[in-house]
Amino acid sequence: MSNEVRDYTPSEDEEYMNERQLEYFRQKLIDWKQDILDGSKSTIETMQTETEQQADFVDRASSEADRALELRTRDRQRKLISKIDAALRRIQEGEYGYCEHTGEPIGVRRLEARPTATLCLEAQEKHERKERTVRDD
C-alpha cells in the first residue's frame, strides 16, 4: 500500500465511495489477496519438503491430520480470493460499496471490517434470518 493510501482512513463524513475511498479499498483488497497467495506458496513449499516418511504411526497420523487441516484452510482462502476478485471487479465497474439487493450504501465501517461485503447490514441480517429459518426446518 502506498504511504498516501496507508496513512488515509476513510470517514463517514466524506463523499461516499469517492476516488480516494475506492483506491483505499482497492489497495486493501490487493494487499489481502497477496498475503493469501504468499501463504499458499509457503504451504506448498512446506508440503513438498515434508514428504519424508515418518516411522511412528502416531506421528504419521498427526502429520496427515495437520496436512488435511491446512488444505481445508487453503481451500477456504481460495474461495476468499474469488470474493476479493469480485470486489475488485465491482470497484472497476463502479458498483463497489453498494448493496446488491437494495442499492443502498453498505457503509465505510462495514467495508473496513469486511471489504468483500456485498450486502448492507439490513440486507445481511435479513439474509441470515432466512438462512436460520431454512436450516431449522
Keywords:
Four Helix Bundle (Hemerythrin (Met), subunit A); mainly alpha; 5 helices; flat; 69% helix; 137 residues
Shape: flat
Low-confidence sequence ranges = none
How many DSSP H or I helices? 5
Q: Would you count the extended β strands for me?
A: 0
Rg over CA atoms, rounded to whole Å, is 20 Å
Reported for the largest beta sheet, the result is: none
Oligomer: single chain
Percent helix range: 55-70%
Classification by helices and strands = mainly alpha
Query: Superfamily at the CATH H level of one domain?
Result: DksA, coiled-coil domain
Task: Sketch the topology as an H/E string, one letter per element.
Answer: HHHHH
CATH architecture classification of one domain: Up-down Bundle
> What do the pLDDT scores average to?
85
Distance between the termini: 46 Å
CATH class of one domain: Mainly Alpha
- CATH topology type of one domain: Four Helix Bundle (Hemerythrin (Met), subunit A)
Q: In percent, how much strand structure appears in the residues?
A: under 5%
What features would you describe in this structure?
With 137 residues, this protein is mainly α. It has a domain at 3-96: DksA, coiled-coil domain (Four Helix Bundle (Hemerythrin (Met), subunit A)), CATH 1.20.120. 69% of the residues lie in helices and 0% in strands. Helix 2 (19-49) runs antiparallel to helix 3. The chain starts with a helix and ends with a helix. The relative contact order is 0.12. The mean pLDDT is 85.
In terms of topology, how is this protein built?
Layout: H1 3-6, H2 19-49, H3 57-93, H4 108-113, H5 121-136
Helix pairs in contact: 2-3
